[in-house]
Amino acid sequence: MIAQINNFKVDFSKPLDISITLSNTDENPIAWYIEKPVIEPVVLGSEDSEWIGKVSEGKSSTNFNNIFFNPHGHGTHTECLGHITKEFYSINKSLRTFFFLAELISVEPEKQGEDFVITKAQIEKALNGKTPEAIVIRTLPNENEKLSRKYSNTNPPYLDEKASEFIRESGIKHLLIDLPSVDKEHDEGKLLAHKAFWNVKDVNNLNDDARLDCTITEMIFVKDEILDGSYLLNLQIASFENDASPSKPVLYSLE
Fold it and tell me: Which Pfam families does UniProt cross-reference here (predicted)?
């Protein structure tokens, strides 16, 4: 199906999925010191009359699995400011519309001491005056290993506080990045980039101008063949009453 959006044509039959598949295999990416996800059939009853929710076991007409995972540590996820506040805020209530004009940029983080950091200057240069509703950041080098990387205790690259402030001041409401966090892995709980993006001044007493309707999506993967530029973003979540949800961001080319 082809739709007209503003002055562009969008072919919805050609989605560009930038999410990472969640699986219970060793290929699943992991962050934040947890183990891989668990996907296993429900088992009910006693040993003599056991019911197993798996058709191939011959004891059920349906496959009926439990899934145990962490949205922040096991793959592509979208979070609201409830991720860092004392008061509860739900991603399900914060994200209420799902299509946005987005700009995809590629950035090679700069080495600063022992860290690799995405700076304000890099973001500003890549956007080149554009003010989209969403920004999608692909870090370089863009190895396929991102699809299965084990991030815990590796000090991944992160977003400088000033870069996050610039994104907020540009009016961008949705930030997507192919890292496990916009912040440094071990930062003593400062969460400077998160706070700057959501304009949160005090996590215990939320300021009136905090950005309740803005989101951060982490652990995406953008293939090399998807070129930098403007796209239509469809950002879909599961309806969890939680600070974050696994998500499936999809880009569509603008013609």
Answer: Cyclase
Structural tokens at position 18: 């930038």
What b/e string do you get for 124-154 counting C-beta neighbours within 10 Å, with b at 16 or more?
eebbeeeebebbbbbbeeeeeebeebebeee
Q: How many CA atoms lie within 13 A of 102 on its CB side?
A: 28
**Total residue length of the chain:** 255
Integer Cα distance of 89 and 103 in angstroms: 27
The string of pLDDT tens digits covering residues 78-108 is 999 999 999 999 999 999 999 999 999 999 9
Q: Would you state the pLDDT for residue 110?
A: 98
Among positive and negative, which fits the CA dihedral 59, 63, 69, 74? positive
Q: Torsion over CA of 149, 19, 103 and 200, rounded to 10 degrees?
A: -80
pLDDT of 196-246, one tens digit each? 999 999 999 999 999 999 999 999 999 999 999 999 999 999 999 999 999
DSSP secondary structure letter of residue 55: G
Start-end of H helices in 67-204: 91-94, 120-127, 161-169, 192-198
Q: How far apart (Å, rounded) are the C-alpha atoms in residues 73 and 181?
A: 10
Considering only CA atoms, which of 98, 97, 100 is closest in space to residue 254?
100
Non-local CB neighbours of 54 within 8 Å, separated by 6+ positions: 41, 60, 63, 64, 65
Distance CA(123)–CA(135), nearest Å, equals 10
Distance separating alpha carbons of residues 208 and 232, to the nearest angstrom: 30
Task: Determine the average pLDDT of the residues in 118-124.
Answer: 98
